[in-house]
Design brief:
The chain has two domains: 1-70, no CATH class; 83-149. It contains six helices and two strands. The chain has helices at 8-21, 36-44, 60-69, 72-96, 110-134, 142-148, and strands spanning 26-28, 48-50. It has a two-stranded parallel ribbon with strand order 1-2. The protein is globular and about 55 Å long.
Length: 149
Amino acid sequence: METGSVSEDQVVDEKAPAIWQLKPESVIGDDSYTKYTRIRTWAKSGVALLTPALRWVTGRYAEAYHRFISQPGNAELLSARKTAIEPLFDLISKVLGTTDNHKQLPLKGQANVQTLLALGVLAVQIAMIANSIWGLPLHEISHMATIFT
């Protein structure tokens, strides 16, 4: 885990070799991961880096990449990111009570932040398990958030 002052862009490049060792077919990231040299390096390592490439739209490499990400399997993976990852972040922020625009955590220090985020993830998992048992919608965690506030 890195501090908030370290950009995702830098972290993904540093962590890439460890990710490649896991041998995933693809990794889905947000638009900040879109960089021609990065996408090409990942492809040479056998991993398709799929991003929306919202700002990278001109030039033959951009056009080829947009054709690649619009292929049925790749488009489905990119589409699933919006329904799988972002809602989880939203649930965690609700449990932690960080629902303002910047979702700032109420404490500082990497060890504190790691602990708080781990507890947030655990709380969301417990809420989802309880909801599954009780037949409630998995994303409805308001009762669990109430317990932690």
